[in-house]
């Protein structure tokens, strides 16, 4: 009887075990944390200076899996675990990382992420994330002001993909003639989007039940902008095929080419047709902070919604995206949900209970990642960051144009530059594919590739403000060496 009572007491008071005490030990955390910070600082020094040899230590997926399977079967200290992860990961802070669009995190933003990871506040419900939520409102106000919204609002969410979906749900709620959220589909809906838009727009539309035919892909013009001359034709044809067009999406810029659509022209079309205008500015929305490049977003203030990734062109750690709406009320349009356990007043907008507006229920404290940067360096940081990187892209393009054995795919207007090696007879698609593969396996540089009008191009995105002309000269030299080796091995 006494034993039973004791068991019951332990269950109620939740007596912790020695293991639990160890897992939460503050001294151990300090010791391991200081060691980790020292490791990251060393990594930062080695990568930014370019003194570490490789950007990536490429291993085939199966080999990497085998490595980790063996690793986790042995005992390792936390320091050895972290060190091994660090060594076997791609180094976005290396100036020869010129690949996909992800920022080399500004260290202070990484520190903010560490703080938020440890606090683990849920920044979607006010009581659970007061500081993060108030800061989020300030971040949103800053974006709104820079875009030129007079009555705007918005929130942060987990990535550009989710942000595009959220904005398009708001578009559907606002522009569809029925309430699909409650009643389901009874009409064929469609959106207009450039054929060069990021695949996540297509994915969002499919999630929303628009189907293949509801995603109307508009061809691009010679400059790779959505061809605004064709909008009327595609719109009318959709109408005559029984579709209600609810929205048009502009890219700022599109991912493969880095080309901004003509936002002003799209805005005029959207207004004339009374459809929603959304801008996917995941990559280049940050240019609103650049005095030199903000003109690329001319017309953005007329968009009903726009999304901007912090982890692309603003230096924050992933994954951190702003979804902004021209009208404050639209920011509540995507989701209508009753959740009595979270908030008391369903009908009150309660700006501070962000779960009413976001897909996430538990949301990370993303605002800290922006504000840590703003707090330390001011918003001038974003101008310096974007301007330096866009300048670097243009400079590299100019250099490519001066090389007789390389070809520029198109004149870049941002930090995305597509080019290929042409100094050899033969199938250029095949040769450039080989070049890219050898570069990946070699690991001295990291660049990616894309296909434009059926041709394969090498693709670079200048994400690192410390990538200089010397690095890009070395890249071309490396490519020439690869081609020589390919020739001799034939
Ligand atoms: C234009 C564009 N939109 C959306 C996305 C997806 O953003 P995220 O990776 O944050 O989900 C990307 C990613 O590269 C992008 O380039």
Could you characterize the architecture of this molecule?
This protein starts with a helix and ends with a helix. The chain has 17 helices and 11 strands. Strand 2 (188-194), helix 10 (199-207) and strand 3 (215-218) form a beta-alpha-beta unit. It has a domain at 113-377: Type I PLP-dependent aspartate aminotransferase-like (Major domain) (Aspartate Aminotransferase, domain 2), CATH 3.40.640. Helix 3 (26-48) packs parallel to helix 5 (78-87), helix 7 packs across helix 14 (367-377) and helix 8 (160-175) packs across helix 10 (199-207). The strands form 2 sheets. The protein has a 7-stranded mixed β-sheet with strand order 1-7-6-5-4-2-3, sandwiched between helices. Strands 8-9-11-10 form a 4-stranded antiparallel β-sheet. The radius of gyration is 25 Å and the shape is globular. Residues 1-9 have low confidence and may be disordered. It has helices spanning 2-13, 18-23, 26-48, 61-72, 78-87, 107-119, 130-147, 160-175, 180-183, 199-207, 231-240, 263-273, 310-313, 367-377, 380-401, 428-442, 469-489, and strands at 153-157, 188-194, 215-218, 243-251, 276-280, 305-309, 321-325, 406-408, 416-421, 448-452, 455-461. With 490 residues, it is α/β, with parallel strands linked by helices. The longest helix is centred in the N-terminal third of the chain and has 23 residues, at 26-48. The site of pyridoxal-5'-phosphate has 14 residues, from helix 8.
